[in-house]
Amino acid sequence: xxxxxxxxxxxxxxxxxxxxxxxxxxxxxxxxxxxxxxxxxxxxxxxxxxxxxxxxxxxxxxxxxxxxxxxxxxxxxxxxxxxxxxxxxxxxxxxxxxxxxxxxxxxxxxxxxxxxxxxxxxxxxxxxxxxxxxxxxxxxxxxxxxxxxxxxxxxxxxxxx
Length: 161
Ligand SMILES: CC(C)(COP(=O)(O)OP(=O)(O)OC[C@H]1O[C@@H](n2cnc3c(N)ncnc32)[C@H](O)[C@@H]1OP(=O)(O)O)[C@@H](O)C(=O)NCCC(=O)NCCS
Hints:
- This protein is an alpha+beta fold.
- The protein has a single domain, classed as Aminopeptidase (3-Layer(aba) Sandwich), CATH 3.40.630.
- Helices cover 21% and strands 31% of the residues.
- Strands 1, 2, 3, 4, 5, 6, 7, 8 and 9 form a 9-stranded mixed sheet that branches.
- β3 and β4 (70-80) form a beta hairpin.
- Coenzyme A (COA) is lined by residues 22-23, 78-80, 85-91, 113-114, 116-117.
């Protein structure tokens, strides 16, 4: 029903429009966006989902970040068009991209989001990881793609060089 393809530069503004539709106004004021400023997203992990008519139904992006001295992936934004929400597309985009991240050699993924949603994909609160303020620490979540990948990883999340 949906075709998933890597996001291309031609998709960029369409994905931005989807995010504008799905998130509250002012989303770019969030501290997670400062971690994305002037850093390219991760090629091959940013994916768009289109319906049979070619209409954009969902999108997910990833950026590289550093936590203490360790590399991590920052998942997000991820969004599904309201007309397609609740049909499993968000979960599919997340699980598919986590598989590809693992295959690409990434060890750990973090995000700022709702634990009740992301816990079903294995995300747990990262109590030793600090997002730039203002961020509710309860929303700082991570999943290990390799066993123990978050063990001993702590500190402030900063932009990848
Ligand atoms: C969050 C989002 C990407 C999920 O995509 P989706 O395709 O609707 O999700 P799925 O169909 O895979 O899963 C739906 C389930 O997730 C639940 N869910 C969705 N958002 C949730 C949230 N914020 N908190 C808790 N549960 C949530 C739904 O209630 C539903 O539960 P059910 O399986 O028990 O019925 C989509 O709802 C969306 O774009 N929301 C607006 C943007 C957003 O909040 N993005 C995430 C930022 S943290």
